Automatic annotation (TrEMBL):
This is Presenilin-associated rhomboid-like protein, mitochondrial. The chain crosses the membrane at residues 102-121, 165-183, 204-224, 244-262, 298-317, 329-347. GO terms for molecular function: serine-type endopeptidase activity. InterPro entries: Peptidase_S54_rhomboid_dom, Rhomboid-like_sf, Rhomboid_protease_S54. Its EC number is 3.4.21.105. It comes from the Eukaryota.
Length: 379
């Protein structure tokens, strides 16, 4: 009888045996070769398992970012990066995941406004010195030979023609453009997804609440947000000032992401979020609340105008409907959180927070002005 060799990877009856070409199968060969006293029921079961095909182990897949509570996959928005290969692990106690973000939100907001108060103090203190430095620079320019076509001079001329609000948001726009370029580097996708998208099911919870405010994956998303920010920059900076605006903007990004965390944990709809929309909604809501009769228009339909108050009501109504109905295009919870924070701040927060900064400024003034005492002796 001729024998045909099989592979030695466990598909036949062991690594050295082979199956007959047209004769008996694997089970018959085992029965013929095994001793009679070992042909018990239990031994036969073991032999048959070794002779059969090995059953592949079942893989336990972690929860994906686009999976809801029902386990069904939802269609991914074009505004977020493709994170199908990134696994998120929701906590078995979801309420506990909000403790660290809550403390981070409160602490960062306090630090932002405290830093803004010190920044304003330093700006006022250096304004006189800058005035005399400007007079000296103008005098030096008058006696220094001028260069025609100097690129640096053209940049300074363009910069000086910008309003205070436009100069303030230029740095924010540059940061968003830089992060957008980093999304285009394939080797950085995992790092960007981990630190520049906010998700309560991620292992990193706090830093993405701030970093995702400067993160955009879609060019259209970034262009729309930066256009709105540029359009409202002069109004919001004239209303709050440069230092207070930066504190409000950064705090709004963190607060809107925390509201998004709360809604995701409450509904079980985990998924990554990114973009400056929450902070920009704060800017828009603050301006529209303070100037409700101002006229606004859509960039593609400049003929159609409407009041700022009506625009704010329409945006809040749309985001509320999107949150209730579970629309997936935008993070409507972050939009609502940013809008409500903007309305609250210009109505009550400015009086409660910014106008009570004097104790901190006095402490900083004493630290800056009190030098080491000379003599060192006590009277």
């Amino acid at each position: 009888m001729a024998w045909r060799g099989w592979s030695q990877r466990g598909w036949g009856c062991g690594q050295a045996w082979a199956a007959p070409v047209g004769g008996r199968g694997c089970e018959e060969l085992t029965a013929a070769l095994a001793p009679p006293r070992l042909l018990g029921r239990r031994f036969n079961f073991v032999i048959q398992q070794k002779c059969g095909f090995r059953k592949a182990p079942k893989k336990v897949e972690p929860r994906r970012s686009d999976t809801g509570t029902s386990g069904k996959a939802h269609k991914r928005s074009a505004l977020i990066p493709p994170v199908e290969e990134t696994a998120f692990y929701p906590s078995p106690y979801p309420i506990r995941t909000l403790i660290k973000p809550l403390f981070f939100t409160v602490g960062f907001t306090g630090c932002a406004f405290g830093s803004a108060a010190i920044w304003q103090y330093e700006s006022l203190k250096s304004r006189v010195q800058s005035y005399f430095d400007g007079i000296k620079a103008d005098w030096l320019d008058s006696i220094r030979p001028q260069k025609k076509g100097d690129f640096r001079k053209e940049i300074n001329k363009w910069w000086n023609n910008l309003s205070d609000g436009q100069r303030t948001v230029t740095g924010i726009i540059a940061a968003n453009v830089l992060v957008f370029c980093l999304w285009r580097v394939p080797s950085l996708n995992r790092t960007m997804t981990r630190y520049f998208t906010s998700n309560p099911a991620s292992k990193v919870l706090c830093s993405p609440m701030l970093l995702s405010t400067f993160s955009h994956f879609s060019l259209i998303h970034m262009a729309a947000n930066m256009y709105v920010l540029w359009s409202f920059s002069s109004s919001i900076v004239n209303l709050l000032g440069q230092e207070q605006f930066m504190a409000v903007y950064l705090s709004a990004g963190v607060i809107s992401n925390f509201v998004s965390y709360v809604c995701k944990v409450a509904t079980g709809r985990y998924g990554p979020s990114l973009g400056a929309s929450g902070a920009i909604m704060t800017v828009l809501a603050a301006v529209c609340t303070k100037m409700p009769e101002g006229r606004l228009a859509i960039i593609f339909l400049p003929i159609l105008t409407f009041t700022a108050g009506n625009a704010l009501k329409a945006i809040i109504a749309m985001d509320t409907a999107g949150l209730i109905l579970g629309w997936k295009v935008f993070d409507h919870a972050a939009h609502l959180g940013g809008a409500l924070f903007g309305i609250w701040y210009v109505t009550y927060g400015h009086e409660l927070i910014w106008k009570n900064r004097e104790p901190l400024v006095k402490i900083w003034h004493e630290i800056r002005t009190d030098g080491p005492k000379k003599g060192g002796g006590s009277k």
